[in-house]
Specification:
The complex is a heterodimer. Helices cover 77% and strands 0% of the residues of chain A. Chain A is mostly helical. The radius of gyration of chain A is 22 Å and the shape is globular. Chain B is an all-alpha fold. Chain B has a two-stranded antiparallel sheet with strand order 1-2. In chain B, strand 1 and strand 2 form a beta hairpin. Classes of the chains: A mainly alpha, B mainly alpha. At the A-B interface, helix 1, helix 4, helix 5, helix 9 and helix 10 of A face helix 2, helix 3, helix 4, helix 8 and helix 9 of B.
């Protein structure tokens, strides 16, 4: 589509918009990484923050907290989303129930994290206090599960939907039961898509702050149990910006977060590409 | 919230205490703050996002697309607190230097939120444009229309329901955004008199005050959460309506 001379301006603007988007991303990432990467060292990653966030310390306990809350969220959300997707795609027809569940997941995905956080605060921190220990890894992780669930459910469902019907029919035709064809044919084929959904959910959990702010507690010590209060990296970044005004550690923490998110983006992009190729080859 | 009276939504003085009798409970400036911040961000972000979507769907050479598509998902994945961090260290000092004041302002929120809603607008708009049947575009080009005329009078109208949906969902993202706004808004409960004045939003106020609120104050913050939830539900409903609308030629 070569542009005519009279169309140079609108076409130029469209090119400009595409390039501007790329430049915005590059500027943000380059700014933080250029200041933050030099600060990341083995010492930075393995030393605990100072009790009141002093400079020259590390972020070890906050990395541990991020891993813990993300782990709890995934442990809860993964079976629910994969099981839910199998049920929705393999065991129900397009009916009212399916529509309601899909609509509910869509609404859940659109609810702001601060509102999910308010719910988590009421339900896990206050109401289930004897079980979760109040502000804790468990409360934070369970709250995050509500944010991971809609993402991984939708992508798992799409992955299952993309599995060609011939594969199911072939398996059933050879005498396999429904459950056998799901576990040995459908799930392995859809696995890259399902894993993509879970990794994207993981990325959401790693980057979430507002819900964590209301549920995890923010204590900087090393966690020893799921009922301990914790301060994941995102919350720590917020705290050092607002309370300690320590931009050095902030750059380092932000850089670690960005590396984690870039890793998530690249892995999911690569998985989805290989999945599409795989399905085309079938 | 009966004790707080009918002035909760319309009152303009917010002096929370732990008993309803003692405090002042007007959240009107906060609601207005949320709306100002959201509409401004959409006014900046939507044109850029839609233009970028047209670029991705129609114009970009495959090599550019291969770079831009993952970049947009990376932009979506960057944690909001990192956006806030960037805005606090780059955008806020720039505003302070250029225009005076504290820098934490309506304008700072607009700038960072308009970037944060880009991925939502770009990805949904691009999808809806790619779903427009090739025949429409080919027909238009075969009739002698130029590529810009085709984009303007065939592609965009045919994809309009998806584009409108993307903008509404972007609006939802902006009004629900917490951490970035919390860091750069200034959080003063007054109606801003210029775009360089500080502002407070529903999300930021909840996040900021929940940590120490007790009694009536805590309940009022939950009520604020309900108000925000109502806004989100309205936007979700509108997005549903928009995406159901069929465009016929």
């Amino acid at each position: 589509m070569a542009a005519k001379r009279s169309e140079m301006v609108p076409m130029g603007l469209l090119w400009g918009a595409g390039i501007a988007t790329l430049v915005i991303l590059i500027v943000i990432l380059a700014y933080i990484l250029s200041k933050g990467l030099p600060l990341i060292s083995w010492h930075f990653l393995t030393t605990n923050p100072g009790v009141r966030g002093q400079t020259g310390t590390g972020i070890y306990s906050t990395i541990l907290a991020t891993v813990a809350v993300t782990g709890v969220a995934l442990l809860v959300a993964a079976p629910l989303s994969v099981g839910g997707a199998i049920y929705l795609n393999e065991y129900t027809r397009e009916n009212l129930l399916r529509k309601v569940i899909r609509q509910a997941a869509e609404i859940l995905a659109g609810i702001p994290s601060i509102i999910i956080g308010l719910f988590g605060f009421l339900f896990f921190v206050i109401y289930l206090l004897p079980y979760t220990g109040g502000w804790s890894v468990l409360s934070g992780g369970l709250t995050l599960a509500f944010m991971v669930l809609p993402i991984s459910l939708r992508i798992s469902e799409e992955a299952l939907k993309a599995v060609p019907g011939e594969l199911r029919e072939g398996s059933l035709g050879l005498g396999a039961t429904k459950w056998q064809s799901i576990t040995t044919v459908v799930l392995p084929t859809a696995l890259p898509g399902i894993v993509t959904g879970l990794i994207l959910g993981m990325g959401r959990a790693i980057g979430e702050t507002a819900a964590i702010l209301l549920t995890a507690g923010g204590a900087l010590g090393v966690i020893h149990s799921l009922r301990d209060p914790a301060c994941p990296m995102t919350l720590y970044l917020y705290n050092i910006l607002t309370e300690y005004n320590d931009t050095t550690t902030a750059y380092g923490t932000a850089a670690v977060l960005i590396i984690a998110i870039l890793a998530v983006t690249f892995v999911t992009d690569w998985l989805m590409n290989s999945y599409t190729k795989k399905l085309k080859g079938l | 919230m009966a004790e707080a009276g009918s002035s909760f939504l319309t009152g303009s003085v917010w002096l929370p205490t732990d008993s309803f009798a003692a405090g002042a409970w007007g959240i009107f400036p906060i609601i207005l703050g949320s709306l100002i911040v959201t509409l401004g961000a959409v006014a900046i972000g939507a044109p850029l996002g839609i233009a970028c979507a047209v670029f991705l769907a129609e114009i970009a050479p495959p090599a550019v697309r291969r770079v831009l598509v993952p970049s947009v998902s990376a932009l979506a994945g960057v944690p909001s607190v990192v956006y806030g961090f960037f805005a606090l260290l780059v955008v806020v000092p720039w505003i302070r230097g250029q225009f005076g004041g504290f820098g934490t302002s309506v304008l700072a929120c607009w700038i960072i939120l308009s970037v944060m809603i880009l991925p939502t607008i770009i990805s949904i708009s691009t999808d809806s444009m790619r779903a427009v049947p090739r025949e429409y575009k080919e027909g238009s080009l075969a009739m002698g229309a130029t590529s810009w005329q085709t984009i303007r009078s065939v592609l965009i109208p045919a994809a309009s329901s998806g584009i409108v949906t993307s903008v509404i969902l972007g609006m939802g993202r902006a009004i629900g955004e917490t951490m970035a706004v919390l860091l750069v808004a200034g959080n003063s409960v007054t109606i801003p008199d210029s775009i360089f004045a500080p502002v407070s939003t529903l999300t930021a106020t909840i996040a900021l005050e929940m940590g120490y609120a007790t009694g009536a104050h805590q309940q009022a913050l939950f009520a604020m959460g309900v108000v925000l939830f109502v806004f989100i539900m309205i936007l979700t409903g509108l997005a549903n309506l928009a995406s159901r609308r069929r465009v016929t030629f």
